[in-house]
Amino acid sequence: MKHKKSSSSTLKTNPHFFKFLFPDAFAILRIPKKFYKHLPTVLPKRASLVTQICKIWRVNVHQNEEGICFSSGWSEFVKAHDLQLGYFLLFRYEGKMVFSVKVFDTTCCLKDYALTPCEPKQPTFESSKMPNLKCWTGGRQQTACNRKNSYTLGSEKTTKRITGNTDPVTECERTIAQYHISSAYMNFPGMFCKQNGLTSSRTMKLKDSENHVWTMNFNYNSFDGRLASGWINFTKKNGLKVGDKLKFKVLAPDTMLVLRCRRVRDI
């Protein structure tokens, strides 16, 4: 498999490219055309992605008239790393079709993977075929097992610490982003939904601190769960603004408690 642009086999510096996660980037991820000059003249059929938790993932490399992209295996990478709409991914090319990947969530900060994502079955790498690289963590190699951070879901942290048990995390904090208002929905990470059995569409009751009940539709797909119809009325009645922080707690499969943790002051 060939592409038009060629490059020198020696990389003096590690080239980078970044991608924002829009809806069309969950099935495949297109590599920017300007980046092609850094890739081998004859493209291998597969690439390797090394994340900040030091896991190695294999994805297929596909080329057509629209360009070069990561195809088969990419959607599994997305699910395992709980990637959400609006996330920012930074790719650093290590050579030999190996990319180090940093994931930034909607807080614009590095996503904290305090738990190791489930890794799909894949062939073991031969060390002689891999470039000499360390996990991209500021020069120090780190793994998930030696971190003592809060368990992160989506763009916000939950209130539980990792204690070795498998109890579901029932609370999730979300910061209101512009798309939560303009697109009229509130989304929750897929991992959070799976842990609480929220894996199908249903009618959801949202209770506030004053025991008011708001009824809205809850929709689930393989990437996340969303409060949709009825959400926009909730935001208007409660005067929610971008930057407000809410805490959601699952009380039952069809009921959530919502509390406002922080309110943005009027300017």
TrEMBL record:
It comes from the Eukaryota. GO terms for cellular component: nucleus. GO terms for molecular function: DNA binding. The keyword Metal-binding does not apply. InterPro entries: B3_DNA-bd, DNA-bd_pseudobarrel_sf, REM_fam. It is found in: Nucleus. CDD domains: B3_DNA. Keywords: DNA-binding, Nucleus, Repeat, Transcription, Transcription regulation. Residues 14-107, 171-265 form the TF-B3 domain. PANTHER family: B3 DOMAIN-CONTAINING PROTEIN REM-LIKE 3-RELATED (PTHR31674), B3 DOMAIN-CONTAINING PROTEIN REM14-RELATED (PTHR31674:SF62). This is TF-B3 domain-containing protein. It comes from Rhynchospora breviuscula.
